[in-house]
Amino acid sequence: MAKGVGELAGSVKQRAPKASKVSCEQCFFYCNTLCALSLPEPCPTFRPDHPEGLRPPRQMRFVFRQERRRQSAWAFPTAQEQAALHA
User: Fold this and answer.
1) Quick one: which H or E segment has residue 29?
2) Of 19, 28, 30, 50, which sits with the fewest C-beta atoms within 10 Å of its C-beta?
3) 25-34, pLDDT tens digit by residue?
4) CB environment 68-86: b (16+ within 10 A), e (fewer)
């Protein structure tokens, strides 16, 4: 039997991992004396300090959609069709 919306939302909450609290002492900029801010909490530019150095923030993965088998409702004319229109 299909699950209801409330049941699905509940199962998602149960699977979500807990995010650990970050502090300025764990920030790359703070550890390398590059931070010029004195805020009570980590700033939006927080980057974890790693032995390898500064890493770019993780990006979302790009997933290609399956190609649609239907023809599009409208498409640009080909070069030959445009040339025929203006000839």
Assistant:
1) helix 28-31
2) 19
3) 888 888 888 8
4) eeeeeeeeeeeeeeeeeee
